[in-house]
Amino acid sequence: xxxxxxxxxxxxxxxxxxxxxxxxxxxxxxxxxxxxxxxxxxxxxxxxxxxxxxxxxxxxxxxxxxxxxxxxxxxxxxxxxxxxxxxxxxxxxxxxxxxxxxxxxxxxxxxxxxxxxxxxxxxxxxxxxxxxxxxxxxxxxxxxxxxxxxxxxxxxxxxxxxxxxxxxxxxxxxxxxxxxxxxxxxxxxxxxxxxxxxxxxxxxxxxxxxxxxxxxxxxxxxxxxxxxxxxxxxxxxxxxxxxxxxxxxxxxxxxxxxxxxxxxxxxxxxxxxxxxxxxxxxxxxxxxxxxxxxxxxxxxxxxxxxxxxxxxxxxxxxxxxxxxxxxxxxxxxxxxxxxxxxxxxxxxxxxxxxxxxxxxxxxxxxxxxxxxxxxxxxxxxxxxxxxxxxxxxxxxxxxxxxxxxxxxxxxxxxxxxxxxxxxxxxxxxxxxxxxxxxxxxxxxxxxxxxxxxxxxxxxxxxxxxxxxxxxxxxxxxxxxxxxxx
Length: 485
Ligand code: ADP
Ligand code: GLC
Prior knowledge:
- This protein is of the alpha/beta class and 485 residues long.
- Helices cover 40% and strands 19% of the residues.
- It has two domains: 268 residues, Glycogen Phosphorylase B (Rossmann fold, 3-Layer(aba) Sandwich); 187 residues, Rossmann fold.
- The strands form three sheets. A nine-stranded mixed beta sheet has the order 3-4-5-2-1-6-7-11-12.
- The chain is elongated.
- Bound molecules: adenosine-5'-diphosphate and alpha-D-glucopyranose.
- Alpha-D-glucopyranose (GLC) binds next to helix 1.
């Protein structure tokens, strides 16, 4: 079985969020299931050193305004196909935004090119390798089935690979003025509501959902939520129409990269048998974030994009409660300027209790998981969420809003689950500041009862969070599709 993954991010090379973690992890597990996965990625500057080790296996003299090559390379356990198109991807700074913090004005060309090239690999193969299935991830890969459909409309006798569209976050849809369709080589015949048109615009994700054979998202609960106007963000009607082809496959985590026993980013590694060693990691966090130490109340952490999705404005409102309990907060994040300013001010208002580092720091994110007592994830919506899973694996108990993948991965410390020793964290709803405050109170109360807390930590650290089960589900899906060709 041959599968082409197409995505705009991949850990450890280029990452702005959980999409990268997933793309860097699943192919390796699928390989163990006998699936030959190749990952098509834009060759951003972060991939330059890898690129130079690769082999050019295809060339495009003019790909939307400049020459491009496909470079095949094996690195970090992944078989990658890098789309080296300097006019589209060789730029400094953020992969999505220019220096003014707005989307690169040619993002339709950049990700249109990614989708177009993926469709050509699907149709023509590459060096004798041809995918049975293409798995398109998020809007950046959404036009793949449109290009495939167009090729089939031009010649009904050709065979096209099957296509799976995976939605990691429906908030990002890739909407552009319809006039770019012709520049992207998309036929007018596709510009209608059953294909690539979204209310008069070109919709990349819309196209992917409308035209793929199957649609997946990253948790069962989010799959159900997406069918509602509250969560579907304008695409719920289409998703309801395609409900039979939609499924939720829960994300896992890379157990090699996120392993408290071997993590080189921790001051001291530890296991379920040496939990005391976490204290050294906690001390390092306290020092780094300028926090006073207080063994009688939990050290909470946050590792997050600072956006309204993540509900961290609710946490800002709730900080007096957290601090009032003698607890502390170490926050690492970046994003909305208002939230950055709000947390920076909070660190000044609550010195020693609230420590804030604005920025993106992969190593520090590991240390926070390896030394904090609890991780706060009060998201308004969360397709899956990975930081709560890292928390579970590291014994940093998650305190989460009851939504999407958060609801599917954390077992609430209610009386029944505490009694049966299944609890791994705290789940609150409805999602508002009052309930978040309650959840923080509950965490502080549980922390005060150290034997109970420790039991939860041990239960969490043994909870299965790897990719095995979900990789089987992806494999089954690909197999069914390939068999139906
Ligand atoms: P999302 O993809 O919506 O941002 P996830 O929880 O799925 O949310 O994944 C976020 C990923 O990005 C995690 O690996 C998390 O550790 C990482 N991350 C988020 N913010 C930061 C940051 N400021 N520094 C380092 N890592 C971060
Ligand atoms: C998105 C979602 C997040 C999910 C990640 C990986 O960024 O916001 O919930 O975990 O994709 O699938």
